[in-house]
């Protein structure tokens, strides 16, 4: 193992890094969240805005994060602190990294719960519970899972335990080994399901829905949602790309790998749409069903299709794999931070971090079960803890984190140093550094100010 610092290991090669980072990026965001927010926001036009955000904001911020990690070689807050010190910039920049680790931690607290649903659905589908089920039966089975605290706690604990066990084993023996098998399996399963669904479902209507933009359906809230989601889906501003960048072997190209990761992530989201919507349309289901979309609609369809029990089980296994390779990434920065800061072993750090997450996950668990204490009211509206954490991370912390990271790398890092690392042609470097300096922060700022009501479109 090549090792340039004493605290952390490195990925064994570039391919291992790409798999791990793609594993972090591809997750519930692509298969569970993207289809339902696309459905809620009218399809095509939302997809276009999302692709635009990935290209103009997402990829440059990813490059900036990996650069910071590779330069700082530590967990996000310390890596940023170190880079800031090197360029005599304000030490407070490091809080952009700290906020990322916190955002990742908060995300995992609900992510583990939803991943738990997916585990439960593997079992229920494989047992044939949905064969010939009526819509009411499918809905009642979803409700009986999401309203039962013991079931949710059991599945969430299971997810967190396995996550902790893998991360405790370390970078190469834990995370790397896990993504090496799960990612190819996940891709293969996704392709099988998309092929199946395109041939049995309403493929033409799906293409129309996803790729024929109707801009009259595009609201400013949808634009904000698309921007927030482009951060969420690429796992930006949540610690991990800085952290995984810190484990990057020296001779790896940051720009090329970032492009591959973003491309793979986008393809998976689009293919997931192609796997899900033909079934939704063929069965007259609502594309705008919200977070329950794949859990309430797909089992119904699988229950009435040839080989549906088998394909349905494969679908949920794929979802578990996708979620799991993200969960290990989401916990990694907090574990690395405990190793650095407190000098604990990886096992102790993983266990401690996992226990904290388990406690936090109860907030989301009881939001889903509808416990009255998990529902907070102010003025006319009310939100439960899950909705608050989702809103706080995807719409506030991630865009804000991306904003500061783009500015920090765009303005504080010495141009020659950045150019030497990125190895781009002078035109491409000019584009990249101006995206970081001006364009990405400006887009984020406009959308963000609109959110908090300072600017109103
Ligand atoms: N990208 C993940 C998904 O699409 C979610 C996510 C956000 C994430 N931030 C992260 C995963 C940090 C790993 C690490 O599901």
Word description of this protein:
- The chain has 457 residues and is an all-alpha fold.
- The chain has helices spanning 14-25, 28-40, 44-72, 76-86, 94-126, 135-146, 149-168, 171-200, 203-211, 220-233, 240-246, 254-282, 293-302, 308-342, 346-368, 385-412, 415-422, 426-451; strands spanning 375-378, 381-384.
- The chain has a two-stranded antiparallel sheet.
- A hairpin with a 2-residue loop joins strand 1 (375-378) and strand 2.
- The protein is globular.
- The relative contact order is 0.19.
- Tryptophan (TRP) binds next to helix 1, helix 2, helix 5, helix 10 and helix 14.
Fold blueprint:
Blueprint: H1 14-25, H2 28-40, H3 44-72, H4 76-86, H5 94-126, H6 135-146, H7 149-168, H8 171-200, H9 203-211, H10 220-233, H11 240-246, H12 254-282, H13 293-302, H14 308-342, H15 346-368, E1 375-378, E2 381-384, H16 385-412, H17 415-422, H18 426-451
Antiparallel strand pairs: 1-2
Helix pairs in contact: 1-8, 1-12, 1-14, 2-10, 2-12, 3-4, 3-9, 3-10, 3-11, 3-12, 3-16, 3-18, 4-5, 5-7, 5-14, 5-15, 5-16, 6-13, 7-8, 7-14, 7-15, 8-12, 8-14, 9-12, 10-16, 10-18, 12-13, 13-14, 14-15, 15-16, 16-18
């Amino acid at each position: 193992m090549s090792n340039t610092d004493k605290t952390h290991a490195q990925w064994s090669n570039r391919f291992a890094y790409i798999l791990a980072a793609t594993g972090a990026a591809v997750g519930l965001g692509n298969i569970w969240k993207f289809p339902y927010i696309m459905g809620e926001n009218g399809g095509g036009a939302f997809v276009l805005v999302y692709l635009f955000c990935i290209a103009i904001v997402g990829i440059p911020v990813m490059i900036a994060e990996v650069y910071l990690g590779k330069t700082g070689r530590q967990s996000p807050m310390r890596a940023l602190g170190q880079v800031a010190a090197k360029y005599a910039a304000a030490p407070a920049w490091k809080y952009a990294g700290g906020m990322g680790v916190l955002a990742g931690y908060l995300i995992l607290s609900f992510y583990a719960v939803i991943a738990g649903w997916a585990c439960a659905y593997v079992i229920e589908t494989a047992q044939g519970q949905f064969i010939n089920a009526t819509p009411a039966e499918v809905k009642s089975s979803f409700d009986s899972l999401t309203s039962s605290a013991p079931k949710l706690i059991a599945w969430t604990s299971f997810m967190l335990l396995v996550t902790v066990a893998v991360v405790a084993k370390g970078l190469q023996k834990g995370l790397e080994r896990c993504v090496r098998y799960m990612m190819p399996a996940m891709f293969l399963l996704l392709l099988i399901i998309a092929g199946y669904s395109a041939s049995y479902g309403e493929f033409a209507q799906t293409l129309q829905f996803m790729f024929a933009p109707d801009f009259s359906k595009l609201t400013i809230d949808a634009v904000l949602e698309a921007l927030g989601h482009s951060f969420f889906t690429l796992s930006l501003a949540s610690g991990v790309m800085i952290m995984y960048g810190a484990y990057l072997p020296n001779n790896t190209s940051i720009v090329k790998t970032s492009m591959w990761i973003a491309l793979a992530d986008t393809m998976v989201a689009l293919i997931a749409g192609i796997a899900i919507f033909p079934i939704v349309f063929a069965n007259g289901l609502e594309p705008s069903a919200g977070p329950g979309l794949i859990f309430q609609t797909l089992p119904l369809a699988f229950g009435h299709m040839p080989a549906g029990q088998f394909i349905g089980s494969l679908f949920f296994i794929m979802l578990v794999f996708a979620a799991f390779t993200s969960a290990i990434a989401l916990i990694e920065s907090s574990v690395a931070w405990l190793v650095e800061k407190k000098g604990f072993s990886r096992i102790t750090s993983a266990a401690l971090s996992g226990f904290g997450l388990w406690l936090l996950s109860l907030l989301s668990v009881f939001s889903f079960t509808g416990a009255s204490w998990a529902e907070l009211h102010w003025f006319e509206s009310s939100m439960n803890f899950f909705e608050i954490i989702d809103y706080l991370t995807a719409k506030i912390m991630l865009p804000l984190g991306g904003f500061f990271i783009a500015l920090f790398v765009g303005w504080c890092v010495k141009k020659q140093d950045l150019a030497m690392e990125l190895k781009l042609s002078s035109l491409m470097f000019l584009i990249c550094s101006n995206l970081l300096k001006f364009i990405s922060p400006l887009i984020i700022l406009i959308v963000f100010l609109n959110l908090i009501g300072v600017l109103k479109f």
